[in-house]
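Protocol step 4 of 6: structure prediction from sequence.
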Amino acid sequence: MTIKAPKTVQTENWQGYKNPVWHKKDKKNVTILYNMIERRKSFFLRAYMERNGYNYVDLGDHVKEDVQFGREWGTRMQCNPIYFTAGAIIRNLLRIEKETGLSKEKIVNDYVFLGGGGQCGPCRYGMYPQEYMKVANSAGFKDFRFLIFNSDIIQDPPIPKEAAFQFDVGFKVNFMLSFILADFMHIAECALRPYAMDKEAALKTITQCEEMILETFKSKLYLFKLPGVLRKVGKILAAVPRKDIKLPQIFITGEIFANMAHNDGNYNLRRFIMDEGGEVLPGIFSQRGSYEGWRRIKEAERKIQYAASPKEKRYWQIYSFRQKISYNLVKKAYAWLEKAIDPKQFGGKSEMHDVAELAKIGDEHYNTLIFGGEGNIEIGEAIYYQDKIDGFVSVKPFGCMPSSGVSDGVQSKIIGMYPHLNFLSIETSGDNEVNILSRVSMMLFKAKQRMKEREMGVKPVVDASNLDIITTCRE
């Protein structure tokens, strides 16, 4: 038997897909495609695009079809956040091809995609950008360009000077303000949707307020004008007629996409609960931004402590300094704009927890330095809210390593400590919606009972015999 040599022999390691630079000279000829977890985040980013003269298409919310496109073109056995985000890219590229009649080569020349780098968990560091490129190349859009940014105040690695889009401090500040403004509109929906006398009219009012804020944000003087328009918006929202009723309060936490998609990416979970007779505490993206900064500061402190050389130590000291700027900037910007809109006047719950304090609360049960998903923060939230709310939901993508380790593992110990905590852990996969929402309905039924018990002054009974059933991840 003769063994034939392969026609091609790989002599070098695969270095990934190409991501050509979008040059300044082509700025006017190229359109930016983008979306950011949910509609409101990308909606307010339009202001930056228009102020800086970019052609853009806001892809808006994720839809159910995205996960199917992601599974078809993407790598097998991944979580649904990457299927949704990568799938949205392919769905829209194929839509553009069909609607415009442009060739794939022309689309590659005329469009780029802007998005984050998927920095939310240890199982996805660096995977999102390569998966974006993989699905685009697999679908025939060879060397399609991606603009990938990280959450640091300064982009690392830096973008080439000849690039048409710079992830400079100006962009990072505008991105931060975009998700803070989106947070306040989300807070308004959580406050008004379940309580408004006319739900549709209330939602229409929120949409009108979004447009008012966007128009102001488009101004070059937005830093001076935003507080004024937010004060107007706060008064408009406060005038929405509300029902004088009490509803059970539900808190939702978990992996960032599954928790805060507010669309088909997580079965519109918060809206489902609100429409079924519950009040959901808002999922505040700004707090997640605060957690990212805090987490990176903690990581840098360890790197400084165990640095192998003065040069390495100096690098991490600078890195820590930059992260402290980011961390404090998010907190101060949020507090500044929160004061202007004053969510309390329309029933909004805008409290942003100190992530360091939450870490202290949960540190006994989950090591503070184990990061991924919501990590130790979710444990702290469960303990903090155990006697303050009627239902606690931990939501994560199917197969998510860090979130499963928390909500399916350590949280079992927390439930043993606080058995009155109406806790529900669910996994999102992009399908199986009926089964998931039926479980949420059962949790909500228990929450309504829990609320009545609290109103009657019935104190929860803590079963101390369960405290040592499950070991913790402290070591």
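Step 5 (inspection) to follow. The beta strands are 31-34, 55-58, 111-116, 145-149, 249-254, 279-280, 391-397, 423-428.
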